[in-house]
What does this fold into?
Amino acid sequence: MEEKHHSSVGIHVDESGLALPPRAAVWRRARFVLILIAVLLAIGAARTIVSDLLNRRHLDALIAQNARQYVTVVHPSSASAADGKLTLPGTLRGYVEAPIYARASGYVLRWDADIGAHVKQGQLLAELDTPELNQELAQASAQREQAQAALATAKTSFDRAQQLRQRDAVSQQELDDRQGAFNQDTANLAAASANVRRLTELKAFQRVVSPIDGIVTQRNVDVGDLVNAGNGGAGRSLFTVVQADRLRLYVQVPQAYAQQIRTGQHVSVTQAELPGRAFDGTITRTSEAIDVATRSLQIEITLPNPDGTLLPGAYVQATLPMTPVGRLTIPANTLLFRAEGPAVAVVDANGQIRLRPVTVARTVGQTLEIDGGLTHDDRLVVNPSDALANGDQVDVRPNAASDAQPKPASDASGAQS
It folds into this structure.
């Protein structure tokens, strides 16, 4: 009875007799759960889509920002005579540099001058012991005495033959023979005497003296060292004496500036270790020829150095006066090399790049003299990229133009040498 009643009212009873919920309620609950899950999935998908869109916009903004090119610009400046200077490197040399070699072979007996010593001309630097030379001189002296004795005998025989010839006691042939022997012995004595003088003068070279007034900059020997005559053997000098009250400076001037070099021009010489000081030198001579290997002109600059401030061998820079040949000057780091020739990147009023060909009249270190193609108002890109092309949009760094003004030619130190 109960099962029929339950069946009529839609209540299910399981095998154990317990009542189950209606099917409609179960489906309603299932639909509610499915709808809730779908809503949650939709919310998660929407959040993901929104996040992707935001990230994409941010990425696009970063790409656009990174794609913008920032450049530093500089304006061309007028080329003036004050800027027309060329700075070239060089090495100071003593006005006279005398490497002193041994003239006689022997051993160093003693030395009297060390490096840094100020010596006078003729002052003793070292003394050599020359035992072999002493024996050669003794042998030559003995040979000269032999020649003298032979000459005395030949003279007596010749005088006697002349007297006998006057009495017709000897033949003319015998007289001529004795005269020839006398002449030969005379020549032998002259040769022996010359050999003695040679060895005597050579022995005088056992005293090594300074040929000039100067400073001993090198001492390459010590007591007991074996030295060879001349520069044979080890081929090293005993001493080096340098005259430093005047200095020489040899500079290689590139061919482009060689026509402006004149003897007597004044040159400013500076040394990095002596900041704020400039030394006045004079071009005393030039080679008057362009070296084929370096395409440069060698010049000699003389500098007075009475107080010894400048040291021989020091690296210095010489600034030569030059007349500008171009109309404008620009920094060398604004130049672009393209297939069409040298060019510069100019930023127009719209912030776009315009590549403009230029004619380089002369290179003065880190500065270029331009003959034409630019104006004072043009904005030139400093250190332009090789990828720059006409029409590229760029942004000029603010307040950068004043920091990138072209350096004057007088500051250029990296010119060709």
